[in-house]
Write a structure and sequence with these properties.
Layout lengths: L6 H9 L5 H5 L4 H11 L6 H7 L3 H5 L4 H11 L5 H9 L1 H5 L4 H11 L2 H12 L2 H5 L4 H11 L2 H13 L6 H6 L4 H11 L2 H12 L2 H5 L4 H14 L11
Helix pairs in contact: 3-6, 6-9, 9-10, 9-12, 10-13, 12-15, 15-18, 16-18
Keywords: Repeat, Translation regulation
Organism: Aegilops tauschii subsp. strangulata (Goatgrass)
Protein name: PUM-HD domain-containing protein
Length: 239
């Protein structure tokens, strides 16, 4: 109905959901109706949907259905969703590590404004090593490298390298089951200067890396970038 009926009928229909938004969002069927409202009804007529989320964005972003609705709101209500984004930014580190919240964080990194992306990256940079070893946050860190600018990537790389002395965090990341994909993404996305700095630091670990299941992927990458001309055997993808 929301796809087919006239606008004035749509407005009248969605008005009946006022006061029941969160109940619908948390429901396995109702969440699809709220998503459809967001997609099919102009933002000026569904302000009550966005307001229902205020103060609860983080907990709804970590909900299996709530995370979907939030992403629809971010896509279709860009003018009215600043408050929602602020709440996402306040909880960046918690959301990044959550099985549902990580998708909301990735959404802002991919489609949000530059200053929003920058805030997420600077927050995650402080914990980049532990985040890279987390099953869900490692995907968010990959997105930071994919969508960040040179300076933002530099900040993340420096955080990884500055802690390397004594505690070899770079080696830890390269042999970790999740973080090794982050390291592969860094090598794919960084500029020549950044790559040279990383590869020169990594070369010393080639022998050690070959002994680890996840390190092998990186070892072939290092050999490739060191200039032996071999193409790395397919960038390994996560299962």
């Amino acid at each position: 109905a929301l796809e087919a009926i006239e606008l004035d009928q749509k407005i009248e229909l969605v008005r009946e959901l006022d006061g029941h938004v969160l109940e619908c969002v948390r429901d396995q069927n109702g969440n699809h109706v709220i998503q459809k409202c967001v997609e099919c009804v102009p933002v000026e007529h569904i302000g009550f949907v966005v307001s229902a989320f205020q103060g609860q964005v983080a907990s709804l972003a970590m909900h299996p259905y709530g995370c979907r609705v939030i992403q629809r709101i971010l896509e279709h209500c860009s003018n009215g969703s600043d408050g929602l984004v602020d709440e996402i930014l306040q909880s960046t580190c918690i959301l990044a590590q959550d099985q549902y919240g990580n998708y909301v964080t990735q959404h802002v990194l991919e489609k949000g404004k530059a200053h929003e992306r920058s805030q997420i990256i600077s927050k995650l940079a402080r914990q980049v090593v532990s985040m890279s070893q987390n099953k869900f946050a490692s995907n968010v860190i990959e997105k930071c490298f994919q969508h960040g600018d040179v300076a933002e990537r530099d900040l993340l790389i420096k955080k990884i390298l500055e802690q390397t002395e004594g505690n070899n965090y770079l080696l830890v990341l390269m042999k970790d089951q999740f973080a090794n994909y982050v390291v592969q993404k860094i090598l794919e996305t960084c500029n020549g200067q950044q790559r040279d700095a990383l590869v020169s630091r990594m070369k010393g670990h080639l022998q050690a890396l070959r002994k680890y299941t996840y390190g092998k992927h990186i070892a072939s990458r290092i050999e490739h970038f060191s200039g032996d001309g071999a193409v790395p055997p397919g960038s390994q993808k996560k299962a």
